[in-house]
Structure formats: structure tokens, C-alpha cells
Amino acid sequence: MAASAAAVIEVNGLEKRFGALTAVGGLSFSVQPGEIFGLVGPDGAGKTTTLRMLASVMRPDAGSIVIDGIDVLAQPEQAKRHVSYMPQRFGLYEDLTVDENIRFYADLFEVSRPVWQARADAMLAAADMMPFRKRLAGQLSGGMKQKLGLICSLVHTPRVLLLDEPTTGVDPLSRREFWQILYSLRGEGVAMLISTAYLDEAERCDRLALLHAGTMMYCDTPAGLKARMPGAMLEIVAADPRRARDAVRALPGVQGVLLAGIGVHVHVDGTERQPQIAAALAAAGVAVSAIEEVAPTIEDLFVALLEQESVKENAG
């Protein structure tokens, strides 16, 4: 994707190798002010390595990174003043209270007391954490620790926020409150780059980059990506989804099968496949209440694209 002149983050031809392994290969993208840009991919796709290079924790082997007009490779310390990086294990001090942790990070970035207190009040209220200000960080739940980590990351009003799978292992309510804080940053013009292991969460991003083996497969809005889905997606609602999956996965025209809640998502080619699938389910004795075409999810799309990539690799 070509970088925009208005972009806060501009990445071009980014590469990182560890011996013979290419962790990131030729990655290029841009992130606009107020945009939530998601990096999605399996373990080993290059998400964490990319974020660490943008945060100046790791130096790339090739390519360029410009953040808020600053060349990160040439001026890493200056760039850090504009960036907040929240790794998978954020460094909270468990023997300090919520307020003391926030103050510590505010002091690191020389934020004045009136500014950080007003900002902390607003974010603690949005995170539903006002009653816990005097609680030790070590006594917080996992979800609260992640929300506190985000608040500490934002206390100095950065232009860029880098988040590495911040909601992994967090309860659904805390995940929702975490995202409410992210949404509130759009109006401040903060550019947000987030990697996530939750593909349903990826739907909340403004744009997504689908990564595989260190390279970008596609980059688009969630709606634009789903429009690229080849063939069609059928949903089978059955009493026993696993038996339904096993009954149809080897049928002609079936590209992939994925358990999805109480049903099964079946990726088929462009031809009419419902009668064939219904017959196979009946022959297997699987009780079905519905077989209908549905809009694909990001998870459906990603699985389909990985399957296509695997077929290409095997053919090569």
C-alpha cells in the first residue's frame, strides 16, 4: 500500500531476518491519524517483530519507518517521544497502586500533574476503574491490569500507540471496555497499530493487514477484505456441529470447513452446493435445522486465504 502524505506511520520495505528465517519480508503500509490498523496472522506471521521495530526495540535489516515525520532508524530516541508501546507483558509495578503506576509513567514522560490527573480521571472512568485507584496493581484481575497498562501507555498523549495482542486472556467485558478507550482516542488523532489473536476483534479495526510468514497477503477494510472471499460461505445449523463438519469436509466443491458457534461454516466454490451438502448430512444421520448462505467473517476469510496459500506452496 502506498503511504499517504498525511500518515502518522509510514512503513516501506521493512525486513527482519534471524539467520535463515525471514520474520518480516518487504512489509509496507501506512496508518492515518485516528485510525485503528490491525495486524492479523498466526503465530510466526511477524506481528510482534513488526511492532518491536516500530517501537525502536529492534532494528530492521532493511526498509524505512517514519513516525510523525521522524525517521525512526536515524532518530530512534526522538521518535520514542511520539510513541507508546504496550508489549504482551506490560511492565506494571505490582507493589504500586493504580494511581501510583499512572504517576510513575507520567513522571517518566515529564507530564505535569494537572495534565496527567485530568487524563487519568477520564480514562479510569471510561475503563470503569475509578473505585480501584488505591488498589495495588498486583491485586487486579488480568483484564484490569491490561486496562491499567493501556492508561499508563496513554498518559503522555502519544501520537502513535502500538499494542501487541493486548486483550489476550482478557474477559469479554474488559475487552469491550478496552476497546471503548481505543475508540475515544480517534478524536485525538492517535494512530493505533494493534496485533490481535482474536479474529472477531479484528472486525473492529478500520483497516487490516493479513500477514502470513512475514509477508502481507492483503490489506483493506474488513468489508473490503470480505468482498475478496472466493466462492460462497454456507452455514449449517446442526445439533451436532462436529459430525456435520466431518460429513461434508471431503465433498467436491468444499474448500474448507470451520466450526462457528453452534454451527459450521462451509466454504464452497461458486456453484450450487446446498443439495449435495444436505444429502450428505442426511446420509450421515446428522439432524440439520438450516443450511443457508451467510456473509463470511474475517476468520472465514483468513482460513480460506491460508488454505489457498497452502495449495500454492504444495503445487510449487
Describe this structure in words.
The strands form three sheets. The chain has a six-stranded mixed sheet, with helices on both faces. A four-stranded antiparallel sheet has the order 2-1-4-5. By secondary structure, it is α/β, with parallel strands linked by helices. The chain is globular and about 70 Å long. It has helices at 47-54, 76-80, 98-108, 113-126, 142-154, 172-184, 199-202, 222-226, 241-248, 274-283, 298-315, and strands spanning 9-18, 21-31, 36-40, 62-67, 70-71, 83-86, 160-164, 191-196, 207-212, 215-220, 232-238, 254-260, 263-268, 288-293. It has eleven helices and 14 strands. It has two domains: 9-220, P-loop containing nucleotide triphosphate hydrolases (Rossmann fold, 3-Layer(aba) Sandwich), CATH 3.40.50; 232-295, 2-Layer Sandwich (Alpha-Beta Plaits). α3 (98-108) crosses α4 and α5 (142-154) packs parallel to α6.
Nutshell version of this structure?
By secondary structure, this protein is an alpha/beta fold. The protein has helices spanning 47-54, 76-80, 98-108, 113-126, 142-154, 172-184, 199-202, 222-226, 241-248, 274-283, 298-315, and strands spanning 9-18, 21-31, 36-40, 62-67, 70-71, 83-86, 160-164, 191-196, 207-212, 215-220, 232-238, 254-260, 263-268, 288-293.
Main beta-sheet annotation:
6 strands, mixed
Shape: globular
What name does CATH use for the topology of the largest domain?
Rossmann fold
Which H/E pattern describes the elements? EEEHEEHEHHHEHEHEEHEHEEHEH
Strand content range: 25-35%
CATH superfamily grouping of the largest domain: P-loop containing nucleotide triphosphate hydrolases
Topology, number of strands:
14
Any idea how many domains? 2
Strand order in the largest sheet: 6-7-8-3-9-10
Q: Helical content, roughly?
A: 25-40%
Using the CA coordinates, give the radius of gyration.
22 Å
Uncertain runs are: 1-5
The secondary-structure class comes to alpha/beta
CATH hierarchy: architecture of the largest domain? 3-Layer(aba) Sandwich
Please identify the top-level CATH class of the largest domain. Answer: Alpha Beta
Total DSSP helices = 11
The averaged pLDDT comes out at 90
Instruction: Give the termini distance in whole angstroms.
Output: 27 Å
